[in-house]
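Look over what follows to help learners.
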Amino acid sequence: MTELAPPLFALAPTTTPADQNPAIIYLARLAPGSRRTMQSGLMTIATLLTGGRHDAFSLPWAGLRYQHTQAVRAALAERYAPAMANKLLAALRGVLREAWRLGQIPAEEYHRAVDLTGVKAETLPSGRALTPGEIGALLRVCANDPSAAGARDGALVAVFAGAGLRRAEVAALQIADYVGEQGMLTIRSGKGRKDRMTYLGVGAMEVVADWITVRGNVPGALFCPVDKAGTVTIRTMTAQSLMEALAKRGQQAGLAPFSPHDLRRTFISELLDAGADIATVQKLAGHANVQTTARYDRRGEVAKRKAVGLLHLPHYPREQS
């Protein structure tokens, strides 16, 4: 990668103890999933700044000044999609905040260094929303499978598409987190370590009830592995195994490839299409920012399609040669 900010090259690697290292302290505040992502991001920033001479833990972060952070922003904007660039900038700001809190960087220099505008771009959400017919086809193939895996996978579809949970959130669900009479799911330590409650509709509740009848009410993970003999083992499934189970059912239903997040996208989009209040949908989805929820709003696209339909271009049959 191109080396940036030559003045940094003269700085020696930091030898401060762990309890004085702003990168270590910043990462320690994060949830495990975010910690891995942000540590990788800090490694990227250290490489950009020093050409690989420092890593996230040896870089003297307190020595960064406005010109260095602006150079990082420019490089990230050039190399990464806006969402990823902004995530890495958030990590940079977080480490500098810890350096300031530790008294390693003057307040004035800190505020200058973190005065970074976000990388802006209008991008469409990746992936796709499934149609009601596709959701129905998934549930049908699961219902047609009399094994315990069929009941479990039907419940997986119901929770992903009926509650819009993230993969890690579904994997972490315990049977105690579900109140069947109300269809209420308690999401503990969701993204950003935020707890929330969400709900299933009547149809989804019935599908989940079928799975619990097979699984039993033994304490432990709500969704569990099922072996080829149909034996249910009460332990947590990995996020990867959840994705593989859904992919298998998608193939059986003859659907185009989709991801678990596409079922979450379907949940959010369908609620917005139905006229649900966007702030309520934000809470159900567990989005920190309502702007994230708004990216799934398809109503503007429907309006544009209807507007274009008002135009009429004459069509003349082509003469045959």
